[in-house]
Amino acid sequence: MSYFKEIYYGGLSLIEGLIVTGRRLFQPLVTVQYPRKKIPLSSAFRGHIELKIFEDSGTHKCIVCMSCEKNCPSGVISVQGVKQKEKGPKTLTDYVIDFSKCSLCGICVEICPTATLQYSREYELVGVTQADCRFDLLARLKKQVEQKEYEKNKQGKAA
Amino acid sequence: MSSDWFRLILGLLIALGFSQLNALFLVWLERKVAGHIQLRPGPMEVGPHGLLQTIADGVKLVGKELILPFKADRKLFFLAPVLVFTPVLVGFLVLPFGQNMIIRDMNLGVLLIFGFSTITVLAILAGGWASNNKYALLGAVRSVAQNIAYEIPLLLSVMSVVLMVNSLSFSEIVNSQKTVWFIFLQPLAGLIYLISATAETNRAPFDIPEAESELVAGFHTEYSGMGFGLFFLAEYTNMFIVCAVATSLFFGGWQGLFGINLGIPGVFWFLFKTYALIFIIMWVRWTFPRVRFDQLMNFAWKVMIPLSLVNLVITAIVLKFV
Ligand code: SF4
Ligand code: SF4
Questions:
Q1: pTM for the complete prediction?
Q2: B283 contact A CB<8A
């Protein structure tokens, strides 16, 4: 008797399995065709770090205190700045990171006294050498500022 | 006589062309079904909804080098993929696609198809043996064991139908299903046939001979280029044949349900039913995990064969006294 019972319940469970996958055929797809369609990034996404642009000054607020460089556990960051006046503040001349070594630990972002560091939303990064992973954040910032101004001008003209 | 030969050769050529097209379509369908079951779109890039993807893959396969493994049996190694494809082609000869659309209406058609289909196993064994590779050989040996086990319930379930019609000719079997399909009279035989047929075509959950997680690719591990392509082609053509036979034996062939034809030509009924069955087999493949070898054998010898035997005996008794 248990022989037939086994066949019966086995068959039932097989049909149940088929129903599960059969339903899947009509559910919306999860995968998107990547280069053409993209899904929104999570707000917690961490790309490589970048310099924030502040609305009031239109640029970053780095004071070249070197905290980020000193505290980075992986030695990713190198910051350079010069003094304009003898007893004045330093201005940033160079901010380069080697992203290939960054562990995205977030210490630099947290430690920055002026909160000028943030994670970028960049994820389409490709490189074949370590040099490709070196990002000049200051140059990147300049480009972003220019882009912003260009767009502003365009909008102004259109309006 | 000459018109007979003409018909035969023309039919074979059409069958050859059709089997290629069919395989191209089925590979695409398989990937689509697999994709949608896993909530992916499947092939999308080449052609509308990826329809031309298999053609691109085929071109790639043709362009690849045929590699002969070290110390392999050269003749057998190249013979096997050709051999695997011949019986599949023979199957097309006796399949009734429509009322008069049958290349050669033999009175032993059923026997012919099942007789020739065993050559597939031989080809798989030859390929696995000739490859000089332990995985290939293991896969081939498993394939033989599995096919021997599942051939029995397959033939026994077919026998039940043959007993009812009293003929081995496909057109007669189809003709006697004018009002009621045999699946309603022989549901158990139909089910057993479909399960054994899945095993015969080495498809999941019975794809032990090529179990990729254990045997790399089983019997065709060492095949590259078109050698692999032919095995692939044969698998999908085999699937079509098996489902076409099931359509003819159990689902009324080119006839509509309960004699209602809806004015649709028989060929379309036939193809529709065949592809529906193929779809079910694909659906099964992407639902169930592969069974273990002992489970497979137990299932064949302890469940399928006794049940099909009982079914056959009951059929015989009922036919005798009714
Ligand atoms: S996230 Fe961590 S590892 Fe990366 S640069 Fe900042 S401090 Fe260094
Ligand atoms: S911690 Fe902030 S302010 Fe200090 S050097 Fe780094 S980025 Fe500049």
A1: 0.78
A2: yes
